[in-house]
Amino acid sequence: MVGTSSSSSSSCASFGSFDDISAAATAKTSSAAAATGTIKFLCSYGGRILPRYPDGKLRYVGGDTRVLSVHRSLPFQELEAKMKEMCGWEKVYLRCQLPTEDLDALVSVTSDEDLANLVEEYDLATRDRLLPLKIRAFLLPPPPPPPKPSTKTPSPPSTFPIAASSCSAAAARSISPSFHSHASRAPLPADLRFFLHPSAAAAAAAPPRFHP
């Protein structure tokens, strides 16, 4: 019985040693991956993020997906240049998925500080893994430019009737009352007198009398 107990004790010790060795190997592999200084981006572009039927879970549909390996000390501007060259765009917007988040919580990467924080998040998530995680990246094109305003100038509203009436009123005010009294007594042409009453025609035919 004593021997059996000793055997069990040594067996437990061996299992404990195996766990320690496995954990040490995992840490060694992760540290070795970090020591190489290489990080990988799993880049998708040209597609869309859509809900999946029937559970509604978001997924990336269409486009292309490529792996981009760069040194972890690469500045953001150089990383952006490599991504623009990969997708063939003049401008690219980088949005990445954090290891613990879904596709509805992407983060924008626009500077060296953003890139360093992103790499740190993935390093923390890779501590218990044999192989480092690929950084999930989505490349977005620049938004389309706003529509240009119409160059056609609308024609101004017509003011001719108002101007004409204004001119007529001004002309009427500039004429003296004596002119109206003289003009109203001017003889009518003979060819228009037959439209009038005989008494009116006789009065129209009479010579005008001017008052001083």
UniProtKB/TrEMBL annotation:
Listed Pro residues bias regions: 141-159
InterPro entries: Gynoecium_Dev_Regulator (IPR053198), PB1_dom (IPR000270)
Coiled coil: none
Region ranges (Disordered): 141-160
Gene3D superfamilies for this protein: Phosphatidylinositol 3-kinase Catalytic Subunit, Chain A, domain 1
Domain PB1: 53-138
SMART domains, A to Z: PB1
Pfam families: PB1
Descriptive protein name: Uncharacterized protein LOC109723365
Organism for this UniProt entry: Ananas comosus (Pineapple)
Gene: LOC109723365
